[in-house]
Write a structure and sequence with these properties.
Number of strands of chain A: 2
Shape of chain B: globular
Distance between the termini of chain A: 34 Å
Oligomer: heterodimer
Strand content of chain B: under 5%
Helix content of chain B: over 70%
Number of strands of chain B: 0
Helix content of chain A: 55-70%
Strand order of the largest sheet of chain A: 1-2
Largest sheet of chain B: none
Mean pLDDT of chain A: 82
Number of helices of chain B: 9
Shape of chain A: globular
Order of helices and strands of chain A: HHHHHHHEEHH
Largest sheet of chain A: 2 strands, antiparallel
Low-confidence stretches of chain A: none
Distance between the termini of chain B: 15 Å
Low-confidence stretches of chain B: none
Structural class of chain A: mainly alpha
Radius of gyration of chain B: 18 Å
Strand content of chain A: under 5%
């Protein structure tokens, strides 16, 4: 039971996939200009990583070690195709904004990393939970960055006016809309996180 | 000709795969500690990117899109699966091939090749190529230039990080935190080339 709790809690803060193990950064930065696509991306990734962990864990005893990676990639790719088709069918506008990044969930290192590191060695239930909480850990960072960038950039949050309209003469901050701002936000998040939990500081 | 030149300038600088679309960040951060490693990985990316993107263009246009080979069915929804399989297979094949025929090259690229099959930049280039409907010439040109852009970015970051060792950075920001900040500044620099 204690193990299960650790499985669920660790990826949220101490071993957060983005800031600690540095996985899956590509998409974390790319879709965070706006909250709605960021939230959609976070949900899709969480679902994909949880389900791929579950499926791979169920298959772990029948996968021959030599072709392991290909099989894992096929499972993940199939799940991503489903997610992509669903998004295109029900949320067409958001899927246009995400463009290639849904497809890139396949090469998102979190998914493959968790499949290799956790699901291949553990029974289905813990694997599923591990996938779920890694997805949530990823979502936390994504929403943090997206919130800062959207509020300071266009001045809205999930499309609702926050700064824009409430402050007279609000001028949108152009820098926050540009890609480099995402780097600064993640850098600052890591800075805050490591100041709060000094044990995370690594020498490198 | 002019169009191709401006396309490759765009892919190298303002729309740099790494600094504008954040593709291939994982290996970018992990392998930019040392100049030599960065150089090897950069070359491997240029190489694999150009080859796989061309292969995927061929697959898209002759196998997936409605045509004689598939009995006029639209198979584009299987795209992701085909592209990633092509990339994984190509990388595996290249590894064997280079090991056999160019051992010196294998020594320098060898360890990076398997890493590359899950590098987002590789799959990303193929997906952009599909998204933007390139012709074969444009696709080859685009993928090669993106590779060069990626190479330039990782080399510059590695150079900065080697110098960074002598500077005094606040402890919680050390390592990865400051790397993100530098990458952000670098991204600004690359973007100023827009309109070249």
């Amino acid at each position: 039971m204690a193990d299960l709790k650790k499985t669920v809690l660790d990826p949220l803060w101490d071993e957060n996939p983005i800031t600690f193990t540095l996985l899956g950064i590509c998409s974390a930065l790319a879709v965070t200009g706006n909250c709605i696509p960021a939230f959609t991306m976070a949900c899709s990734l969480t679902v994909v990583v949880a389900l791929s962990n579950l499926i791979i864990s169920l298959l772990r005893n029948v996968i021959p070690p030599k072709v392991e990676i290909i099989i894992q990639l096929v499972v993940i790719a199939a799940l991503v195709i489903i997610a992509d088709q669903l998004l295109k069918a029900y949320m067409y506008e958001v899927s246009l904004k995400l463009s290639v990044f849904v497809g890139l969930i396949i090469t998102n290192c979190i998914v493959l990393g968790r499949a290799k590191a956790f699901a291949m060695a553990n029974p289905p239930l813990p694997s599923f939970l591990d996938g779920l909480s890694n997805g949530i850990g990823y979502s936390i960072i994504l929403m943090f960055v997206a919130t800062i960038r959207e509020i300071l950039g266009p001045g809205t949050w999930f499309g609702i006016n926050v700064l824009k309209g409430n402050i007279a003469d609000y001028v949108p901050n152009g820098v926050m809309v540009l890609p480099p701002a995402a780097f600064f936000c993640i850098g600052i998040f890591i800075w805050i996180q490591r100041s709060l939990s000094p044990k995370l500081v690594k020498d490198d | 000709m002019e169009e191709l030149f401006s396309q490759s300038m765009k892919a190298i600088f303002p729309e740099n795969m790494l600094l504008a679309f954040f593709l291939g960040m994982c290996s970018f951060l992990a392998c930019s500690n040392k100049m030599e490693t960065a150089h090897g990985l950069g070359l491997a990316v240029i190489f694999v990117l150009t080859i796989t993107c061309t292969m995927n263009w061929i697959i898209l246009n002759f196998v997936l899109e409605p045509g004689i080979l598939n009995g006029y069915k639209d198979l584009t929804y299987l795209g992701f699966l085909c592209y990633i399989a092509t990339i994984a297979a190509t990388v595996q094949f290249l590894e064997i091939f280079i090991d056999k025929f160019a051992p010196a090259l294998y020594m320098s690229l060898g360890i990076f090749l398997p890493l590359i099959s899950v590098n987002c930049a590789i799959l990303g280039a193929s997906l952009f190529m599909v998204d933007r409907d390139y012709t074969i010439v444009a696709a080859v040109n685009f993928s090669f230039s993106s590779g060069v852009g990626w190479y330039l970015a990782i080399i510059s970051l590695a150079a900065i990080r080697e110098k960074l060792r002598y500077s005094n950075v606040p402890a919680p920001l050390k390592g990865i935190g400051i790397t993100f900040m530098i990458t952000g500044l670098m991204a600004f620099c690359f973007m100023t080339f827009a309109g070249l």
